[in-house]
Amino acid sequence: MRIDAEKGEGVDLAKKYNVRGYPTTVFVNSQGEEVDRIVGYLPIDEFLAEIKRIENGENTYSSLQDQVEKNPEDIDALKAFASKIEQRNQQSQEALIIWEKVAELSEQGSADLRQAEYKIAEYEAVTNQNPEPLLVYTERYPDSDNSIQALIQVMQIYRRSGETQKEAAVFKTVVNQAVEQGNTDVNMLNSYAWRMAELEMNLEDALDKIQMAVAKLDDASAEQQAQVKDTQAEVLWKLGQTESALAVIEECIDLQPDDSYYKEQKAKYQSATG
């Protein structure tokens, strides 16, 4: 059954099943109780494989719950069950208790302990909208796989609290760390550059990062190319390089001639030249 989560009965259903993003596919039994869910888009083959997994009762909420009840010291089962709970409710007290159990059972210095400590810090930071637990985590485990995600959470807390100077500084750190690690994801670079243009901060660095993104557009769709180049134009404009911004926005118009947004952007830049 396809549901529009923003209209009619879909609003209540999305709230009931705590749907936070689209698409989300929720599988329920005849009593309306959730069996499992698939969050996000998957290619057809992967989607069908997930349906088969759920149909077979593999790694579903109830099957993992049974595993944990039978062997409450099985760290892998505990971690899988906590993650499954978080799919339903990211800030779940039930999941927190399980992560605390994982931390208690894990060996010092192990990846399991680092993951559990990250989850505990994340819960405390997001619940209280205080980034300190996550900052402590990143200082303790600077090379952890979770450190960048911890900083992203810190950045989001600063953004919600309106602390834009701190937000911009952390966002810059996150992106530079990702680049150092060889992660030059176009969407990440684009998001960073656009946000810096909005805040009018770190603009030279934003231009450097959006140029990295533009260099990776060879196989991108015309729509994505236009979106990324639009960010490039915006950063150039904020840097006072209006002629360059106009040249780039013309490329966006060529890529998406029926989209009025890019023509409006061009008009904005032209008005700035007097």
Main sheet? 2 strands, antiparallel
- How many beta strands in the DSSP annotation? 2
End-to-end separation in angstroms reads 55 Å
Shape assignment: globular
Oligomeric category: single chain
Percent of residues in helices comes to 55-70%
Q: Number of helical segments?
A: 14
The name CATH uses for the topology of the domain at 1-57 is Glutaredoxin
Instruction: Using the 3D structure, state the CATH architecture of the domain at 1-57.
Output: 3-Layer(aba) Sandwich
SSE succession: HEEHHHHHHHHHHHHH
Query: How do the strands line up in the largest sheet?
Result: 1-2
Category from helices, strands and their pairing: mainly alpha
Strand content is under 5%
Task: Report the average pLDDT across residues.
Answer: 93
Compute the gyration radius: what is it? 22 Å
Low-confidence stretches: none
Highest CATH level, the class of the domain at 1-57: Alpha Beta
CATH superfamily of the domain at 1-57: Glutaredoxin
Structure description:
The chain is mainly α and 274 residues long. The chain has a domain of 57 residues: 3-Layer(aba) Sandwich (Glutaredoxin). The chain is built from 14 helices and two strands, in the order αββααααααααααααα. It has a two-stranded antiparallel ribbon. Strand 1 and strand 2 form a beta hairpin. It starts with 8 loop residues before the first helix and ends with a helix.
What would you say about this model in short?
The protein has a domain of 57 residues: Glutaredoxin, CATH 3.40.30. The chain is 68% helix and 4% strand. The longest helix is centred in the middle third of the chain and has 18 residues.
